[in-house]
Amino acid sequence: MKIDGKTRTCGLIGNPVEHTLSPLIHNNLAQMTGKNMVYVPFLVQNDNVEEAVKGAYALHIMGMNVTVPHKSAVIEHCVSLDPLAEKIGAVNTLVSVEGGYRGYNTDMTGLLRAMQTEEIYVKDETVLLLGAGGAARAVAFLCVSEGAKKVYLCNRTLEKAQQVAEEVNKAFATDCIVPISYDMICTITEDRLLAIQGTSVGLHPNTDNTPLADGAIYDKIHTGVDLIYRPVETKFMKLVKAHGGKTMNGLKMLLYQGIIAYELWNDVTIDNVQAEEILQKMKEEMEIHE
Ligand code: NAP
């Protein structure tokens, strides 16, 4: 990589940022597409989000990714918002425009594109969505905007599921999100489900855990998507597979949220072959041998 007077900078703000794979994604994309661009992580404390965004713009930083815990806090410092990001209430990508940054949510468009590469579609599906935290909440918005027939939003804390369901249903003037707790799973009458695992249960190092205990519900799951990518096969995925379902982990979601941000910053399109090359580099970095 050659850094010179014309090199443009992009970066990531969050806390912590040390373990991020985003520099690997973006610096390899820059090399692959011949862009004179460098991508670096910036540790930003909670109280400094405004200064960080304003400072980045003053430094002509072309674009930024935003990670935990700043995805909501950054919104008030954007000059405009993409409608999906506005609806979800979370921004993970800033794109430099006249007067500041426009905020996008490429986590969700990334998940959608990742699922499409695996031929997994949300339209007309009955979805069993596990979790009601930041990620699951955004997935709930995505499911409704992509035309899911019904979404059972299942969470350990039922009140949180009810709150998210109310918010999403209101945003789309629908009643398609149905909040439930794990002990209400047996009330699901549909027999074909797309399950999306959006809790932190099963994440490394607690790889023997799953939020959804083994049982008859797994016979109804034709496809199980886990947002977790470490381990590459979670306990939830193993159970879906054991009951004859198809599975996907969260690594491609991570890849495509990066790719879509890169496309927004550089006005290019990354094709599936290029995406696959970056995916292999991510697997090498994570020492995933399949
Ligand atoms: P979060 O806001 O902290 O939410 C955590 C969720 O997990 C809540 O619904 C919580 O339920 C549930 N939970 C925690 N412990 C539980 C337990 N013992 N039993 C049942 N449910 C439990 O986290 P998040 O930001 O939404 O992230 C969730 C997961 O998505 C993480 O594993 C993260 O790695 C993954 N993720 C992946 C990507 C990607 O690019 N692939 C992007 C974003 C997130 P309560 O409400 O009851 O506490």
Question: How would you explain this protein's 3D organization?
Answer:
A hairpin with a 2-residue loop joins β5 (93-97) and β6. The two termini are 29 Å apart. The longest helix is centred in the last third of the chain and has 16 residues, at 251-266. This protein has helices at residues 22-33, 49-58, 83-88, 106-117, 134-145, 158-172, 217-220, 235-242, 251-266, 272-285; strands at 8-14, 37-43, 63-66, 80-81, 93-97, 100-104, 126-130, 150-154, 177-180, 193-197, 221-226, 246-248. With 290 residues, it is an alpha/beta fold. The strands form two sheets. A six-stranded mixed beta sheet has the order 2-1-3-5-6-4, with helices on both faces. A six-stranded parallel beta sheet has the order 9-8-7-10-11-12, sandwiched between helices. It contains ten helices and twelve strands. Bound molecules: NADP nicotinamide-adenine-dinucleotide phosphate. Residues 107, 131-136, 155-157, 160, 198-201, 203, 211, 227-229, 250, 253-254, 257 line the site of NADP nicotinamide-adenine-dinucleotide phosphate.
* Helix count from the secondary structure assignment: 10
Report the C-alpha radius of gyration, rounded: 19 Å
- pLDDT < 50 stretches: none
Q: Kindly, what is the distance between the CA atoms of the first and last residues, rounded to a whole number of angstroms? A: 29 Å
Question: By helix and strand content, what is the structural category?
Answer: alpha/beta
Number of strands: 12
Average residue pLDDT? 96
Question: Which word captures the global form?
Answer: globular
Q: Which small-molecule species are bound to the chains here?
A: NADP nicotinamide-adenine-dinucleotide phosphate
Strand content: 15-25%
The main sheet orders its strands as 2-1-3-5-6-4
**Oligomeric nature of the chains:** single chain
Which percent range fits the helix content? 25-40%
Q: How many strands, which pairing sense, and closed or not: the largest β-sheet?
A: 6 strands, mixed
Order of helices and strands: EHEHEEHEEHEHEHEEHEHEHH
